[in-house]
Amino acid sequence: MIRKNLLKTTLLITLIATLLVQAGCGKKTANNITYTKTTVSSEAESNATKELTNTSLVTFNYTDEHGNTYTLEGKAIASETGDATIEVADVNGNKVTFIGKATITDGRILVSNVSVKDEGTLIKADGTEIKVSIGNTVTDAIENTDGNNQSDIVASDDVKKEIETAKHEEKIITVARDEVTRAEINNIDVTHVQTEETSIEHSTENKIEQPTDNDNKFGPTEANTETNTEPNTKPSTQEEDVLILSGDTSLSGKTINNDVYITYSGVVEFDNITINGDIYCYGVLRCSSTIARNVYAYSGYNGMFSCSKSDGVRGVSGDITCNELYIQDDALDYAFSKWGKY
Question: Given CA atoms 152, 158, 159, 164 in this order, what sign does their dihedral have?
């Protein structure tokens, strides 16, 4: 039997060899598990190095030297440092430029401290001239999501298409950066796991650690009094204090504010899941970007850490962050006594 402290470290392990059924207490050898580092395409690497801007259609008010106030609509381009430029052009192609500092408020771009950079004269549809001069009053510019905007100067369809194209390119850069970041994090984790396993394999004693009294404080506090019978099957259910999962189940992008009990028949996949409780895995759990308080199972990381009750198939694997991974013969006693063994 073995207890593995994770210390809130994420381990990402890919099993590419056939799982062998284990008998007795121990861990699988490194020959059964291969750790692979993530690579990204050259295109993604190239896109990730490009400057990421934030381009939006904004509106704001400008007051000229005579006290006349006009609503202007233009294209705002914000850099990664927050410096923003707003271009406003009329139907005749006359253009003026404003500058300011950009932030994101309620999911919309806000440009504050707006001032005139390049002066000029804009002409409204009715022929009225708007003289834009340095030093005049300009309000903050907010991203325009109103299709019925009644600005004195309205952005042309060509400008709006330019904004759409820019947003598409910005999304490509964002996705590429996320891909590169995930790869870098994964490769750090894989290197950590490989180093850790090498240390285990070359341990002078190479024995399985027995739990101490202090260790048991992380484990179940209630003993199982049931006989070791074949498990029954029940459907997945949400009870007051636990989410019970049976059969094939896939969950993504959720926060679960209960304990989770995966039954013997459960084959569960978690993607981007946060669990504000403990996981008790009697079945199969495959994780990606999963966070939990503690994990209790008979086998961890596809049998890398196992107890005598492991069948070499069921257990926890993948990318999961937790305080404690508890692999013991009594790891599931608490779940069995509280919710049943099935």
Answer: positive
